[in-house]
Amino acid sequence: MRKISADLIIPVSSAPLRNGVVAIDDDGTILSIEEWNDLKDVSIEKFSGIICPGFINAHCHLELSYMKGKIPEHTGIVQFLINLIEYRNQRNQNASGGILAEEINTAILKAVAEMKTQGIAGVGDISNDNYSFHVKSSGDLLFHTFIESFGFDPLQAESYFQKALQLFQEARASGLSASITPHAPYSVTPELFRQIFSFKAYHPALFSYHNQESDAEAALFKSAQGDFIKLFHRFNLPGKTFLPTGKNSLHSVIDYFPPESRMLFVHNTTTDAADIELIISKLPESYFCFCPNANLYIENTLPSFPLFKSYPDRTCVGTDSYASNHQLSILQELITIQQYFPSIATAELIRWATLNGANFYYWNKRLGSLETGKKPGINLISPVGPAFELLK
Hints:
The protein is of the alpha/beta class.
C-alpha cells in the first residue's frame, strides 16, 4: 500500500482537498481519500503539484500516427483533408502493403506508449482499418473503437455501410468495444445516415461525429460554395453536385440522429449558442469533445469554450491524431484552453478531462474520479506552471 499527497488533490467527484492523502493498494485501487490529519505519518509520500485521476482521451485517430509531422499546419480543414488523402495515397503507392503496415503499426505502438506516459487511462479511438485492433485488445488502457462510415455517393450507401459493418464485426471478434459512427456532415449522405442509425447491434450504443470544424462547412450547406467544392472536384467526388439547404451543417442533418442516441460532437469550432441549444433539446444524451491543439494546427482558431460552461458535465477533451497534433497529451490540451480562456478554472478543466469522458464511455465505475474502490490511474501534475495554476 502507498499513501500519497500533494499541494492539492482534485478527486473530481468531490471538492478539491489541500493536505489530502490518497491511499492505494498494489494494483492501483483506491483504498481511501481523506484529509491529512496525522502530520507525523512518515509513510506518506509528499509531492509538489496536483494529484488527479487518469485522463480520458475522448477523441483520437491512432491509425494516423504514422503521419506525424507530415501534414502542414494552418491550411484550413479542406486543404488539410486534401493533404492527408494525398499523403496516404502516395504512401500506398510507394510502399508495399507489408512495409506500410509495419510503419503504421510501429507508429501506433509508439502513440499508445506516449499516451500512457501522459497519464491517459481511456481512449475513444476512430478506426477506418484494423491496424490498431491488436494493440487495443492486448493493452491495459481502456478503449472504445468507433468504426467510421462515410461516402459521397447516395447510390452506394449500402456498400459504404457494409464495409463498415465488416470492420465492426472484426473489431468485436477481437474483443473490442465498438460501434459504427458517421464521419462528418459533408461526407455522409442522408441514405448512409439512415443505414448507420438503423443498425441496432450496439452495446453500448455510442456515436462520435465531427461537428462544425470550419466556416467552410457552413458555406457548403448554406449555398454549395466555399472550399469544400474544391475538395469534391479535386477527387472527383459525387458531392461536387451538392445541393444546398440554406442552413448550417448541424441544422441540416440533426434530424437524422435518433433522439435517444448518445452522441459525442467533436471539435465544435464554429458552434454557437443556438447550435448548442438545438443539440441539447433534440439529443439530450449528447456530449461535446474539444481538441484545441488540433483546431490550432488545422484552422488556427478555437471554439468559444465559455459557451459550453453551462454544460460542465457534458464537456470532454481529446487529442485528435498525430496528423493534426504535435503530441498526444490531454494535459497540453488543458494548458492550451487555459492559456486562451483563463477564466475556466483548473478543477473544471480536470473534470472535462476525466469524469466527463468516463461517464460518456460508461467507464465511470472504474475511471474518471478518485473514489474508494476505483482504479482510475493517478496523475501528478508537477511542477505547476503559470499557465496551469494550482487552483483558480
